[in-house]
From TrEMBL:
This is PD-(D/E)XK nuclease superfamily protein. It holds the Pfam family PDDEXK_4. The lineage of its organism: Bacteria, Bacillati, Bacillota, Clostridia, Lachnospirales. It comes from the Bacteria. It comes from Vallitalea longa.
């Protein structure tokens, strides 16, 4: 074990590279903004207020609301794209912790309420969302309302009147805003937002180079990393023991080891999904994580030219096994890029078939993610073999509908 520990920390170029990437100076990390919902909510409330000193005016709030509508385009919402882009939001009041609600934005001139419950590490408390909803419904009876549960991965709310948003969406909005406004903002504001973007990148784990590096390090040092992880919180340890050495190493490399353990150690869901790809010659992996698995059927290659932004249609396995023992599978239509008219035509033609029911808002030019097929199954025995079995079952059962989808898409392509 001593040799494994030494091998892990001495002249480990990959560990040094990871350390360098993770320990880049960021004052917001020193303040631990990344760890506390309260601090994220403070930043978001600041960005949402058009009258604040960031100099962005309505840009963030309008892009945020637009993103929420696009993410939930299959749901009938009280607030529409027209409400957002044709109205002025400079009268908006952004309140923090009003009646314990994380963020409440009120526009009296537009008779509009935006309720945001923000969850970074904590989970919903029982009855929390309903309680906040009831308060807002009572106080603002005649107002249009958008109630949002904001989480790292877009977790589904327990209350039906809430819609989802995730931190990747916040990252995407801010990244695009900074590309458009670079050099036009106050230098200190620009630095602050860029630092916050780095915090968001860490939270959503979107840096594929870091994820790949973590997996390589874990694969090469699995035994000692598991040992460190199992001993890192021990208090009563013998001086000079292996446990003490493990705790000391963890204290030195805490951020890197936590990152390696999170990304290197794959879940049962991911192991099953990787086997699913190997066992099915007609599927191609697009993107993976411990919570979702994105892939395409090889036949989808025939319709790639419909989109200027990659594969226009793809499959997603969604992992909710730890929450409700449910494995879900979607077929989703993404943006067609510059070919949005073909996207509209495709969805209109698909909607003519009895098997598919497309929401009206999905035909908007701004629409980007439209779920056209959704099935789920309860997995009572959460083992790799059982998950794989149900993945295969869900996939096989979808192929008849997939053929109809591809037939419509091919006709549009002509």
């Amino acid at each position: 074990m001593n040799h494994s520990l030494n091998k892990f920390i001495i002249n480990n170029v990959k560990l040094e590279k990871l350390e360098s990437r993770l320990n880049k100076f960021n004052p917001l990390n020193i303040l631990k903004v990344n760890e506390y919902e309260l601090r994220h909510s403070n930043v978001l409330a600041w960005l949402l207020d058009p009258n604040e000193n960031h100099g962005l005016g309505e840009e963030f709030i309008k892009k945020f609301l637009g993103e929420v509508i696009l993410l939930n385009e299959d749901i009938n919402l009280e607030i529409s794209v027209v409400d957002i882009y044709l109205n002025n939001f400079y009268d908006i009041q952004v309140l923090r912790e009003w009646k314990n609600i994380d963020i409440l934005a009120i526009s009296h001139s537009n008779k509009m309420i935006i309720l945001i419950e923000n969850k970074v590490k904590a989970k919903e408390s029982e009855g929390q969302l309903k309680r906040y909803s009831d308060v807002v419904e009572t106080k603002f009876r005649d107002y249009k309302k958008l109630k949002v549960l904001l989480t790292v991965e877009g977790e589904e709310p327990t209350e039906n009147e809430y819609v989802i948003c995730n931190y990747y969406s916040i990252l995407k909005i801010l990244t695009n805003i900074m590309k458009l406004n670079s050099g036009n903002l106050n230098d200190k504001v620009e630095d602050f937002i860029n630092y916050y973007i780095e915090v968001l990148e860490d939270i959503v784990d979107e840096d594929e180079e870091i994820i790949d590096l973590c997996r390589e390090i874990y694969k090469e040092n699995k035994k000692i990393i598991d040992y460190i992880a199992s001993n890192k919180n021990k208090i009563h340890i013998t001086k000079g023991s292996m446990e003490e050495k493990a705790v000391n190493v963890y204290n030195i490399y805490e951020k890197s080891i936590d990152m390696i353990f999170r990304h290197g150690k794959t879940t049962t869901f991911l192991e099953a999904a990787n086997k699913f790809i190997k066992h099915n010659n007609d599927v191609i992996l697009e993107k993976e994580s411990n919570t979702y698995y994105c892939f395409i059927n090889s036949s989808m290659d025939k319709i790639k030219s419909l989109s200027s932004e990659g594969t226009p249609i793809y499959y997603i396995f969604n992992n909710r096994l730890n929450k409700n023992n449910r494995l879900r599978m979607f077929i989703e239509v993404q943006s067609f890029g510059d070919n949005y008219q073909k996207r509209q035509e495709f969805l209109h033609e698909l909607n003519k078939l009895d098997e598919f029911h497309i929401k009206e808002r999905s035909f908007n030019p701004e629409s980007r993610y439209t779920r056209i097929y959704s099935k789920s199954i309860v997995v009572n025995d959460i083992t790799e073999d059982q998950i794989l079995k149900y993945m295969n079952e869900l996939y096989r059962n979808s192929l008849k509908d997939l053929n109809k989808i591809l037939e419509v898409a091919m006709n549009i392509k002509k």
